[in-house]
Amino acid sequence: MAFGYAVQSLLLIKLTMVARFNILSAVVVGLTALTCLLSPGVDASMAGFALAFASSIQQGLLFVVRRFVQLEQSMVALERINEYDVRKNTPGTS
Protein backbone atom coordinates (compact mmCIF):
# COMPACT_ATOMS: atom_id res chain seq x y z
CA MET A 1 0.00 0.00 0.00
CA ALA A 2 2.85 2.37 0.79
CA PHE A 3 4.42 1.69 -2.62
CA GLY A 4 1.26 2.84 -4.41
CA TYR A 5 1.20 6.01 -2.34
CA ALA A 6 4.85 6.69 -3.18
CA VAL A 7 4.22 6.21 -6.90
CA GLN A 8 1.20 8.51 -6.78
CA SER A 9 3.21 11.15 -4.92
CA LEU A 10 6.04 10.93 -7.43
CA LEU A 11 3.61 11.23 -10.34
CA LEU A 12 1.96 14.26 -8.73
CA ILE A 13 5.33 15.93 -8.23
CA LYS A 14 6.30 15.30 -11.86
CA LEU A 15 3.01 16.66 -13.16
CA THR A 16 3.32 19.74 -10.95
CA MET A 17 6.84 20.37 -12.23
CA VAL A 18 5.73 20.02 -15.85
CA ALA A 19 2.79 22.36 -15.25
CA ARG A 20 5.08 24.98 -13.72
CA PHE A 21 7.50 24.75 -16.62
CA ASN A 22 4.63 25.06 -19.10
CA ILE A 23 3.39 28.19 -17.36
CA LEU A 24 6.92 29.60 -17.32
CA SER A 25 7.26 28.81 -21.02
CA ALA A 26 3.96 30.51 -21.83
CA VAL A 27 5.07 33.62 -19.95
CA VAL A 28 8.43 33.70 -21.76
CA VAL A 29 6.82 33.22 -25.18
CA GLY A 30 4.18 35.84 -24.37
CA LEU A 31 6.80 38.38 -23.30
CA THR A 32 8.83 37.63 -26.41
CA ALA A 33 5.78 38.13 -28.62
CA LEU A 34 4.94 41.38 -26.85
CA THR A 35 8.50 42.60 -27.28
CA CYS A 36 8.43 41.70 -30.98
CA LEU A 37 5.16 43.57 -31.45
CA LEU A 38 6.32 46.70 -29.65
CA SER A 39 9.77 46.87 -31.26
CA PRO A 40 9.63 48.80 -34.53
CA GLY A 41 12.74 47.25 -36.09
CA VAL A 42 11.67 43.60 -35.81
CA ASP A 43 10.46 42.05 -39.05
CA ALA A 44 8.41 38.85 -39.40
CA SER A 45 11.36 36.50 -39.87
CA MET A 46 13.16 37.81 -36.79
CA ALA A 47 9.97 37.60 -34.73
CA GLY A 48 9.44 33.99 -35.85
CA PHE A 49 13.01 33.11 -34.95
CA ALA A 50 12.69 34.75 -31.54
CA LEU A 51 9.42 32.95 -30.79
CA ALA A 52 10.80 29.57 -31.91
CA PHE A 53 13.88 30.05 -29.74
CA ALA A 54 11.80 31.15 -26.76
CA SER A 55 9.60 28.07 -27.00
CA SER A 56 12.60 25.74 -27.25
CA ILE A 57 14.12 27.09 -24.04
CA GLN A 58 11.42 25.38 -21.96
CA GLN A 59 12.17 21.95 -23.42
CA GLY A 60 15.89 22.33 -22.80
CA LEU A 61 15.38 23.54 -19.25
CA LEU A 62 13.00 20.69 -18.43
CA PHE A 63 15.49 18.19 -19.89
CA VAL A 64 18.33 19.59 -17.74
CA VAL A 65 16.23 19.52 -14.57
CA ARG A 66 15.13 15.92 -15.20
CA ARG A 67 18.72 14.81 -15.82
CA PHE A 68 19.88 16.55 -12.65
CA VAL A 69 17.16 14.84 -10.61
CA GLN A 70 18.06 11.48 -12.13
CA LEU A 71 21.73 12.05 -11.26
CA GLU A 72 20.82 12.99 -7.70
CA GLN A 73 18.69 9.84 -7.31
CA SER A 74 21.55 7.71 -8.61
CA MET A 75 23.98 9.29 -6.16
CA VAL A 76 21.60 8.63 -3.25
CA ALA A 77 21.32 5.00 -4.34
CA LEU A 78 25.11 4.68 -4.43
CA GLU A 79 25.40 6.23 -0.98
CA ARG A 80 22.91 3.69 0.38
CA ILE A 81 24.78 0.79 -1.21
CA ASN A 82 28.07 2.08 0.17
CA GLU A 83 26.57 2.50 3.65
CA TYR A 84 25.15 -1.03 3.56
CA ASP A 85 28.50 -2.41 2.40
CA VAL A 86 30.41 -0.58 5.15
CA ARG A 87 27.99 -1.81 7.84
CA LYS A 88 28.14 -5.36 6.50
CA ASN A 89 31.96 -5.46 6.57
CA THR A 90 32.36 -3.77 9.98
CA PRO A 91 33.27 -6.28 12.71
CA GLY A 92 30.82 -6.53 15.57
CA THR A 93 27.70 -5.65 13.53
CA SER A 94 25.20 -8.04 12.13
Commentary on this structure:
The structure is a single chain. This protein has 94 residues and is mainly α. The protein is 88% helix and 0% strand. The chain has one domain (2-89). Helix 1 (2-38) packs antiparallel against helix 2 (44-89).
Helix-strand blueprint:
Elements: H1 2-38, H2 44-89
Helix pairs in contact: 1-2
The dominant shape is elongated
The largest sheet is: none
Strand content: under 5%
| Unreliable residue runs | none
Domains counted in the coordinates: how many? 1
* Number of separate helices: 2
Given helix and strand content, the structural type is mainly alpha
Mean residue pLDDT: 85
N-to-C SSE string, H for helix and E for strand: HH
Number of strands: 0
> What percent of the residues sit in helical stretches (DSSP H or I)?
over 70%
Query: How many angstroms separate the termini?
Result: 29 Å
Radius of gyration: 23 Å
List keywords for this structure.
94 residues; elongated; single chain; 2 helices; mainly alpha
Q: Could you give a quick summary of the protein structure above?
A:
The protein has 94 residues and is an all-alpha fold. It has 2 helices and no strands.
